[in-house]
Amino acid sequence: MADIFEKLMKNSGPLGQHRERAHGYFAFPKLEGEIGARMKFRGKEMIVWSLNNYLGLANHPEVRKADAEGAAQYGLASPMGARMMSGNSNLHEQLEKELASFVMKEDAMLMNYGYQGIMSAIDAICGRHDVIVYDAESHACIIDGLRLHTGHRYVYKHNDIEDCEKQLERATALIAKQQSGGILVITEGVFGMAGDQGKLKEIVALKDKFQFRLLVDDAHGFGCLGATGAGAGELQGCQDGIDLYFSTFAKSMASIGAFMAGDKVIIDFIRYNIRSQIFAKSVPMPFVVGNLKRLELLRNHPELRAKLWHNALRLQNGLKEKNFDIGETNTMVTPVYMKGGLEEATAMVMDLRENYKIFCSIVVYPVIPKGHIIYRLIPTAAHSDEDVDLTLKAFTETKAKLDAGAYKAEMIPDMAEVK
After folding, report:
1. Residue 278 shares a structural domain with residue 368
2. Which residues contact 380 (CB under 8 A, 6 or more apart)?
């Protein structure tokens, strides 16, 4: 019998195989200073494109004031315990009421974290006779929620409505055969890697032909899309057809926590059956106070959303003008697709950081196929025209080096030696 730890050490996983050389630079980097468009990395000021601080609220003076006052008045311990037992408050319920109203639903419930919240919600909603139909590019939190599901699940090709319909036909036939169960369709409002919106309107239209409920994870759309910022469903004119609307506070709100909204009857069911909230501590009061202020700013300051879109379109149009491939994004999320191996990607990232002072996230194999590189740029309301223009210049020059083969190397350098 092998020692379980010894077995793990022999197979560190696809992301961990370079950990000794990459740690602290490519993985687990430390950004320092006030959260914003420019922060320090290893003592050098960088233009940062890796933070989902979409509306620039992380350091908004009213937000900082509310956060500080909430911490001073209540401390991080209050309220103690889970919501169901001893951790409820008027402010928790006020935030739920305001969130429900904002996204045009009857009721909402707070969750202490988005990742565990949606996982546990899927588990609470779906039993072993139920069938889940989901988009192939769904976020890891949804995939992990599916792993908890003991019934059948059918995946459809990303944003392929024809294939979604085929999977709904399969699900409907299976339920007819079982003579038990229902169907839950899961997709995203905005896919956080590619930046394209889920085809919510088309999926809602399938309700004329099939009986199912729709759960939408709109983590990236909430606060950013739609006439009022209520998200992808509002933008596409189908918010009423979304049965369960989910978002985290970690993106446009620059905070901690999440919520699920829908008809009161189903939200009440989830509230009394979602294990990750029943058996976990309530959202601390300072976060509730701070999130109330953030939601107020979302509602009352559309100029924040306008600034985000000004920066996003300036960046995206600039990249397209310079013949960069940014895929099918129709949101502020800005992927930049290039060709190259791991070694080339590593060298290019170092060049961007060390010589151009540009900090952005990169995705390579095994997350995507070999020979491909994706940079994911996250424009925010905090960025300036100068930030965008300097970044366009840096990408143009480093892409020319990549194409010329200047970044070919044998291995990832030891980052402890990089000053």
Report:
1. no
2. 37, 51, 53, 54, 55, 56, 308, 311
**Given a cut of 70, is residue 365 above it in pLDDT?**
no
Cα–Cα distance measured from residue 266 to residue 263, given in angstroms and rounded to the nearest whole number: 6
Average pLDDT on 183-210 reads 97
Q: Are residues 31 and 67 in the same domain?
A: no
CA–CA separation, 58 and 54 (whole Å): 9
Nearest to 54 by CA among 233, 195, 209: 195
- Nearest CA among 302, 227, 222 for reference residue 255: 222
CA distance 334 to 403: 21
> Is there a contact between 139 and 217 (Cβ–Cβ < 8 Å)?
yes
Local confidence band at 204 (pLDDT 50, 70, 90 cut-offs): very high
**Beta carbons within 10 angstroms of residue 407's beta carbon:** 20
| Token pair recorded at residue 279 | 């058996």
Cβ partners under 8 Å of residue 155, min gap 6: 133, 134, 135, 136, 167
Whether the CB-CB separation of 252 and 60 falls below 8 Å is answered with no
Name the token pair of 291. Answer: 């999130």
DSSP state of 325: B
Residue corresponding to tokens 């420019």: 38
Looking at the structure, do residues 95 and 135 belong to the same domain, yes or no?
A: yes
How far, in Å, are 117, 144, 151 from residue 279 at the CA level?
12, 19, 24
Exposure class string for 326-355: b at 16+ Cβ within 10 A, else e:
beebebbbbbbebebbbbbbbbbbbbbbee
* Whole-structure pTM value: 0.93
Q: State the CATH number of the domain containing residue 213.
A: 3.40.640.10
- Pick from 348, 334, 336, 367: nearest CA to 26: 348
Q: How far apart are CA 100 and CA 263, in angstroms?
A: 9
Q: State which residues form the domain around 262.
A: 60-300
Please tell me the distance from the alpha carbon of residue 229 to that of residue 223, in angstroms, as a whole number.
Answer: 4
- Condensed to tens digits (0 to 9), the pLDDT of residues 303-362 reads 999 999 999 999 999 999 999 999 999 999 999 999 888 888 889 999 999 999 999 988
Q: What is the dihedral of CA 259, 330, 307, 69, to 10 degrees?
A: 10
